[in-house]
Specification:
45% helix
Amino acid sequence: MSIQLKSIFGFEGKNVFITGAGSGMGKAAGRLLAELGANVYATVRNNPLDFPAAKAIKADLGDRAQLDAVIEQLDNEFAAIFLCHAIAQYRHTDLEVSITNFLSHKYLIERLLPKISDNGSVTLISSNGGRMWQDVIPQCEEVIACRTWDEAVTWYEEHPEQIASPYVFSKQCMHVYVMSQVHRPEFINRRIRLNALAAGNTETGLSEDFYKGITPDDPSQGRALIHQIFLEPWNGRAAEPEEMGYPLVVMGSGICSYMSGQIVYFDYGMSSVQDYDAIKRCD
């Protein structure tokens, strides 16, 4: 029996929304969604789209007014949303990173849920930097419990020690959000799936900013340090954006219609080895 791939993915003729589609993983995912026949509504920050889209919206998603303007332009029903936007710490404050890399995601999800169709999906790009989320569950839950944007910003401002590593804490919050919210009525009663892809080291447009964030005067030292931590232990290589963006689309598609509440690590086994070694040391 012949099976049409587009029908298995389930995006053909459907509206989907994706952020961060101008570069990196979001760009790879957006391009695949368009090829699968989806009507893609996409946000970009700097770079223009290089694939056909129903609508391209330029916005800084760390700004609430611009977030609201984006939401106002999304007046359709969506089969899936993919949130791929993020910033590195270089050139940004701890508060700006915290807002962009988690609070804006939470805000978009909560505002867009009524526009997601039953049996739809919400899929996030996270990072294997969000490991060790178990150590900060209470703090993550406090951020997640904030009822308004301003309340969350105030929490960040009152906990500078917690957001001293804003990228890591944002990804930990994302992991806790997925696992703690997946069976809440607003998701489970309408069978809206919620998952995150925890990406390993990937060469994207943000890579140089990550390196500069570690060693501003000599980015090559930052690159060497990241490679030493994430790649040298397994004689590995950095991933290409497509190696994250394509699986992201699969996770949000009909192929994974029974998968929800999952943090899926795409880091060539690095997180698995680290978890295994940690458990062995405790024996």
